[in-house]
Amino acid sequence: MGTSSKDIQKNTDIQQTIYSELGYKSMPFPFTTPAVLEAYGTLVGLDTPPAKTARVLELGATYGGNIISQALYNPEAQFVGIELSQEQVEKGNEIIANAGLTNIELIQSDIGSINENIGTFDYIIAHGVYSWVDDSVKDAMLNIIERHLTDNGLAYVSYNTYPGWHTMEEVRQLMMFANGDAEHLNHKDKVLRGKTIGSIVGSQILKYDNLKDRNSKFLGALRSVMQKDDYYVGHDHLEPNNDPVYFYQFNNHLAKHNLSYVCDVDLTLSMVRSFDSEMADQLEKLSPNNHVGQEQYLDFILDTSFRKSIICKSSHAQAIKYDLGNPGLVNTVPVRTIINAFTYETLFDEEALEMFTNDLVRDTFQSIIKDGGQFNMIEALALVKAANDAANGNDESLEDAVNALYIAMAEHIVRGGLRFLKTPPVKAYYMEGQSFVPKRFTEFVKAIADGGTDYIYGATPYNEAIDDISDEDLMFMEIMNKPKAKSTIIKSIKDKIFSQTHGTPGKNQQAMAEAFYNELTKRMEMLGFLDNKIK
To answer: Do 266 and 184 touch, CB atoms closer than 8 A?
Structure first.
């Protein structure tokens, strides 16, 4: 039985009331960028659109917190965000206008009414939407992807999944029941009431060892919810819709729209042979030559509760291969070619180097980490050869080390120990007299500092949230509006910060200004706010 337009409008009104009463801060998500999606497509053998010049559509963009920073760092790409809330669109577009960004716009529309003339997109993003809307909107979402995704484009859709969400659903139902007679409360108070009653229920279970053991999963889910921010709990547990699906059901829905599953952002869910060989063999027996079936069985084994699926048009899916997750194929030429295609960044530190059993590989990663953590395979292979030469190794030991390196690369790509990108952000290092902060970064920080921090985050070039942008950052960015000598910058810092300070000796002012200069130039590097003048 279909959902009436009256019911849809009622649910929409409730959702907007929740947003208004609870507040919402629009987050950037690192795994939704064109560069990440381009890399994942390449990893499984697809020819993906270039991230640098991509057209990107986000469904459910809220204030634009996920794509405004992407537009900031990718001026040659184009971004469009669709959002139902007029208030959020207006505030997001105000930040866009104040930042002077011309490669992004937010459009107020419900997903089912998107203008057909919007065009096609290389990448389409829908984070935190699919499970939180009714079936008609789910269908409209996939219909948009089917019609507006380019032939070799990729889409990203996240959703709550069973079997893992069954336990979390018990917590949701508890909170809904706790508020069953509390229609007079606003949603902020409903969250507080739900958390309070949830805590009471949990404390009663903890009094009895037999109940504590029997309900350990429920207690874990309850504890997790109690620790979440109120706005998150309100949106995830007290909205009209929270509709998890099994992975196979999501894939059945894709098939109705001529779409196919590519892989999950969590590659351990997709590279099923990366687990021990016995499990991989059993999954193959349970679902022969059926990758979706094997992943569904894996979800039962792992009790998966959330998925971040990358999808494509079915006509583009024939080239998909999961060879990188097969240890027996890692040292074949096709898999090595894929591994060679990326620039990498280590996401582990020196303390984790003991996990490498080959001494030359361990020495290689130690050198990479000390040099900043970013590398490509040409550099890594050169380091392995240098380490082999230093150890007076022979061709056989070098070959063993190279094989071990590729195996380690594949394992840590799948396990999340390495960030891999085909189009990495260009990092500018500070150079006196050459470096400056482009105007678009300063205007963006100024825009979010002027009230925008209440509902939007800044982000790094990797789209990781920055929650501590300060007035000092903005002041320094304004000073760095063009390349300047160190002495000029330090004088400006002294004039702006210490001119009103009484009783601070001039010598101390100089030392403090130099420390400020050193700290802020490194911070601008980290945030990716620098550019360098081309001689």
So the answer is: no
Helix/strand/coil for 67: coil
End-to-end Cα spacing for the chain: 67
Q: Which helix (H) or strand (E) holds 419?
A: strand 418-421
8 Å CB contact between 57 and 82? yes
Rounded CA-CA distance 435/456 in Å is 28
Give the C-alpha separation, 444 to 514, whole Å: 26
Residue 3 has pLDDT above 50, yes or no: no
Residue 16 has pLDDT above 70, yes or no: no
**For the chain, how many residues are written?**
535
Residue 182: per-residue pLDDT: 83
Are 528 and 464 within 8 A, CB to CB? no
* Identity of the amino acid at 113: S
Strand partners for 79: 56, 104
Structure-block tokens of residue 379: 């550099």
**What is residue 154's three-state secondary structure?**
strand
* Phi-psi category of residue 518: left, alpha or beta, with phi > 0 → left and psi -120 to 50 → alpha: alpha
291: nearest Cα among 257, 312, 262, 250: 262
pLDDT of residue 533: 78
Query: Could you give the count of Cα atoms lying within 13 Å of 518 in the half-sphere of its Cβ?
Result: 6
Full strand arrangement of the beta sheet holding 418-421:
374-376, 343-346, 418-421
Q: What CA–CA distance (Å, rounded) separates 182 from 238?
A: 12
d(CA 71, CA 95) in angstroms, rounded, equals 12
Within the chain, how many helices (H) and strands (E) appear?
21, 15
Q: Span 45-50, mean pLDDT?
A: 96
The single residue listed with the structure tokens 């050459």 is: 434
CB 125, CB 66: distance < 8 Å:
yes
**The residue to which tokens 């829908």 are assigned:** 126
- Scanning the structure block, which residue is given the tokens 């000598």? 485
Structure confidence at residue 508 (pLDDT): 79
Torsion on CA atoms 434, 435, 437, 440, rounded to nearest 10: 60
Percentage, residues of the chain above pLDDT 70: 93
Joined together, the tokens standing for residue 528 give: 């990716």
Helix, strand, coil shares of the chain, percent, nearest 5, are: 55, 15, 30
What residue has token string 């582990």? Answer: 348
pLDDT at 12 over 60: no
Most confident of 20-29, 204-213, 261-270: 261-270
**Cβ of 256: how many Cβ atoms within 10 Å?**
11
What pLDDT, in 10s, does the model give residues 86-122? Answer: 888 999 999 999 889 999 999 999 998 888 889 999 9
Per-residue confidence at 187, pLDDT binned at 50, 70, 90? Answer: confident
For residue 143, give Cα distances in angstroms to 86, 129, 139, 349, 481.
Answer: 23, 14, 6, 44, 45
Q: Tell me which residue of 37, 72, 506 sits closest to 310, measured CA to CA.
A: 37
What is the phi-psi region of residue 33: left when phi exceeds 0, alpha when psi lies from -120 to 50, beta otherwise? beta
Spatial CB neighbours of 294, under 8 Å, sequence gap ≥ 6 = 272, 283, 284, 286, 287
